[in-house]
């Protein structure tokens, strides 16, 4: 699949944080978005993006899917000051990571406090980063025995999403569409609702006490 995000240069800052016997590699944007408001919502979290922040979100998602040893951090709370959707809940940052890191969200506050300035780096991702998965792959997630969901937690004013490469890739296509298709669609139809609805936690059909279902509703706002 041809995608305009493929090969796009994304300037980032890379930090390595040691906590006890553990070392964590954290990647965050070198230029945080001016407009990108993530807020706690009734069903999980609401994310309001523009053209720049939608592309940044897609790049961060793709990097998280393909880099199991990296914590991807989007510091979004500062940009909430220019958020036109201010009726939503408290502002949140966003962290994306693999379950293989076994990273407890409760430790995120410590890690964030030790990030420092970071080393400049440039990330580029191939076209296959945002695959269009077969319908059968999505249908498998509806079954009660399916366990490979994106898990979520809120810690230190941050939405922490944890999952496998498959869990991220199952949602990658709609995030790519948010970044690549929504700007043109909204330009033609300004009142159109253009969004990505990303399931978090267990299945909506088979709710679980320890893995509650929620949604990250990412909406193209301007």
What does this structure look like?
With 222 residues, the protein is an alpha/beta fold. It has helices spanning 51-66, 108-113, 135-140, 165-180, 182-188; strands at 10-19, 22-29, 36-41, 44-49, 70-74, 93-98, 119-123, 151-155, 158-163, 195-200, 214-220. The strands form 2 sheets. A 7-stranded mixed β-sheet has the order 7-1-2-5-6-9-8. Strands 3-4-11-10 form a 4-stranded mixed β-sheet. Helix 1 packs antiparallel against helix 4. The longest helix is centred in the N-terminal third of the chain and has 16 residues, at 51-66.
Please outline the helices and strands.
Blueprint: E1 10-19, E2 22-29, E3 36-41, E4 44-49, H1 51-66, E5 70-74, E6 93-98, H2 108-113, E7 119-123, H3 135-140, E8 151-155, E9 158-163, H4 165-180, H5 182-188, E10 195-200, E11 214-220
Parallel strand pairs: 2-5, 4-11, 6-9
Antiparallel strand pairs: 1-2, 1-7, 3-4, 5-6, 8-9, 10-11
Please summarize what this structure is.
This protein has 222 residues and is an alpha/beta fold. The protein is built from 5 helices and 11 strands; from the N terminus they run E-E-E-E-H-E-E-H-E-H-E-E-H-H-E-E.
Radius of gyration: 17 Å
Per DSSP, the total helix count is: 5
Cross-sheet strand order for the largest sheet: 7-1-2-5-6-9-8
Low-confidence stretches: none
Strand content of the residues, in percent? 25-35%
Which range best describes the helical content: under 10%, 10-25%, 25-40%, 40-55%, 55-70% or over 70%?
Answer: 10-25%
Major sheet summary line? 7 strands, mixed
Coarse morphology: globular
For the termini, the CA-CA separation is 26 Å
- SSE string, helices as H and strands as E: EEEEHEEHEHEEHHEE
The count of strands amounts to: 11
Averaged pLDDT = 87
Structural class: alpha/beta
